[in-house]
């Protein structure tokens, strides 16, 4: 696991585009994630190939929080708890992260389980609160999204 670099942007974009569950963004977003926001992102490699990524940012109004934008593990790397390992990496190398946040649809059991497992590992609380209503997404048919917040996270000695 390591921080992403600019040359990883196209690989991240292709990895996300190949997945049928994540919202697709332009390659430009991944260029920004790998340059301007690389301190809050991680990539996982297997045999020199990127097989996982967690992208995020530190919200300006909540600088002690890490907001996870997307997290993805390629099919050939699933079943190894890689998503949780990437989140743990971001917490350990996050420069004083006290909370990990994301938005999750009510039907996304896998993500809910991931964040519950992270909270348990960290000995931290987990809370859900309304964030975006389905109507906020217009006629796209997108589900509502709830804000999940894990923390506070105690600093490790």
Description:
The chain is an alpha+beta fold and 157 residues long. The protein has a single domain, classed as Aminopeptidase (3-Layer(aba) Sandwich), CATH 3.40.630. It has helices spanning 9-18, 27-35, 82-92, 109-122; strands spanning 42-46, 49-57, 65-73, 99-104, 126-132, 145-150. A 6-stranded mixed beta sheet has the order 1-2-3-4-6-5. Strand 3 (65-73), helix 3 (82-92) and strand 4 form a beta-alpha-beta unit. The longest helix has 14 residues, at 109-122. The two termini are 22 Å apart. Keywords: Acyltransferase, Transferase.
Examine the coordinates and then state which fold CATH places here, giving the name of the CATH topology.
Answer: Aminopeptidase
Q: Strand count, sense and closure of the main sheet?
A: 6 strands, mixed
Low-confidence stretches: none
| Count of all domains | 1
For the record, give the distance between the C-alpha atoms at the N and C termini, rounded to a whole number. Answer: 22 Å
Spatial strand arrangement across the major sheet: 1-2-3-4-6-5
The number of helical runs is 4
Overall mean pLDDT stands at: 93
What CATH architecture label applies? 3-Layer(aba) Sandwich
| Structure classification | alpha+beta
Approximately how much helix is present in the residues? Answer: 25-40%
List keywords for this structure.
157 residues; alpha+beta; Aminopeptidase; six-stranded mixed beta sheet; L-2,4-diaminobutyric acid acetyltransferase; Acyl_CoA_acyltransferase; diaminobutyrate acetyltransferase activity
């Amino acid at each position: 696991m390591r921080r992403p670099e600019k040359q990883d942007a196209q690989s991240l974009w292709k990895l996300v585009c190949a997945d049928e569950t994540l919202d697709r963004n332009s390659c430009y977003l991944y260029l920004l994630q790998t340059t301007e926001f690389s301190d809050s992102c991680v990539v996982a490699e297997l045999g020199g190939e990127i097989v996982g990524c967690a992208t995020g940012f530190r919200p300006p109004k909540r600088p002690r929080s890490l907001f996870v934008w997307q997290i993805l593990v390629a099919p050939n790397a699933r079943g190894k708890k890689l998503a949780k390992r990437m989140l743990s990496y971001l917490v350990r190398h996050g420069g004083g992260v006290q909370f990990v946040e994301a938005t999750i649809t009510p039907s996304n059991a896998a993500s809910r389980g991931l964040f519950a497992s992270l909270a348990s590992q960290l000995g931290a609380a987990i809370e859900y609160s309304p964030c975006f209503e389905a109507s906020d997404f217009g006629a796209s048919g997108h589900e509502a999204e709830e804000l999940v917040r894990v923390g506070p996270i105690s600093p490790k000695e």
